[in-house]
């Protein structure tokens, strides 16, 4: 019990520090508003800086630490992934998608600004993410920079996040229940692929052997699946005030989730199995990967 407590406390401290460091990097990488396009920069900063768990960014930083990668390149990569994640949330919240009014405890971007600015800010955050990854300051090796861009594009494009969002919309329009395997694929694409890439990114930066890249990708894949089930459990069981966003919306919209299909106890047990499976992929790293193992437990125990 003592080791679990120490691990949890260490994880909280590490995630808090990582979030602060990532926000500092984002503050530099998304310039303060000035000139005629100031409103766009202001909207980008509103969406990307402050709030959120920074799970994806933390995965990059902690993965990079396993391979001796310097902090600045890892932070730039983490910030790029958080920019892309922020863009996805901005677009996901739009009236034509999920039509949400609350995100990270504050009004969604299209509510704080307007819909057109939200679309542009999302587009700009996505473009800026790839710009940051492609810059020499992110890594001296052009192959590594290209690999980061390639893998992020794959994780966020039609066979990743965007494809998963399309499947989600089609399922909602059809109004017919999905099978467990179909829900799993939808969630793998919509949420899991970006988390998988975030976990692998540190190994890419560190030029790790292919076997280690695969191990980190597998860890991220199982972690992402567990994280999504936990998110659906929160939507079904936690208040909007506690979550910092609207809850109960999946049931309202008739969305396909494993919680809806399996029920809360079975879905929670499945998330726990996935978290344990994720941690097992890191066995070869020994104690130095303890924070990443603790993260798998956190992913299913969190309340926001």
Automatic annotation (TrEMBL):
Q: What are the UniProt keywords, alphabetically?
A: Isoprene biosynthesis, Magnesium, Metal-binding, Transferase
Q: Does the keyword Lyase apply?
A: no
Q: Which domain of life is it from?
A: Bacteria
What SUPFAM superfamilies does UniProt report for this protein, alphabetically? Terpenoid synthases
- Classification via Pfam families: polyprenyl_synt
Q: Supply the InterPro entries for this chain.
A: Isoprenoid_synthase_dom_sf, Polyprenyl_synt, Polyprenyl_synt_CS, Prenyl_diphosphate_synthase
Q: Where along the sequence do coiled-coil regions lie?
A: none
Q: Which cofactor does it need?
A: Mg(2+)
Please report which protein family the annotation says this sequence is part of.
Answer: Belongs to the FPP/GGPP synthase family.
Kindly give the PANTHER family that the UniProt entry links to this protein: FARNESYL DIPHOSPHATE SYNTHASE (PTHR43281:SF1)
What is the protein named? Farnesyl-diphosphate synthase
Organism of provenance: Roseomonas fluvialis
Q: Source taxonomy lineage?
A: Bacteria, Pseudomonadati, Pseudomonadota, Alphaproteobacteria, Acetobacterales
